[in-house]
Amino acid sequence: MPRFFVGAALQSDDILPLPDDVARHVLVLRLQPGDSITLFNGEGGEYSAELLEVERRSATVRIREFRDHEAEPPYRLTLAQGIAGGDKMDWLIEKAVELGASCFMPLTATRSVVRLAGERAQRRHAHWQGIVRASCEQCGRNRLPEIMPVRDIAAWLDALPAAAEDGELRILLSPRASIGFAALPADPPSGRVTVLIGPEGGLSAEEEAAAIEQGFTAVGLGPRVLRTETAGIAVLSALAARWGGW
Fold it and tell me: What is this structure's pTM?
């Protein structure tokens, strides 16, 4: 059944005009009056709905019953990611949503190829939010992961509490790490998990040292050096398998 995100309050038996972008998607899929769809607004759960009218530029639905369905993993994970160049960041965000990340912190670092600021950063932020919504529609998540504004890694690290809160786990992926993935806890922590990954050129030694001072544990992923977009997907997949996120 087609799923669509609607950024509005939803209530059973309401008749609702769909947002323009959703209405266009309905037309592309050649849906007709009487067809059933699923709507969600990112606050949890979903609603079944019936298309009442489908016009060239608009569509209207009647909202049916609420379903208390969730597809979230049993942990909350923030992916603090050095911004990757080209379309790598788009791909990474899309796949990380599918793998259960609950928050994205895009970072610029010393070796970043891409640097975003001002209006350009705002446009990219809005673009990434659209990717999150589309990925949630596809994968069945009913809670939208948050995309934080772009920050410099030094400022972001300085703003973190000096010590991790009880139950919080901070992981730094580094090819220089002396411990491997197997050293991570066998069960998901009770607090938030933050995974920090550098951009294409990796984090500098100074940035890694600053992260470790802020409570991050440097962890390696084996003898092969992974690309930044590969490392994120690899660790999210491994943690899902380890902590029951599948």
Answer: 0.91
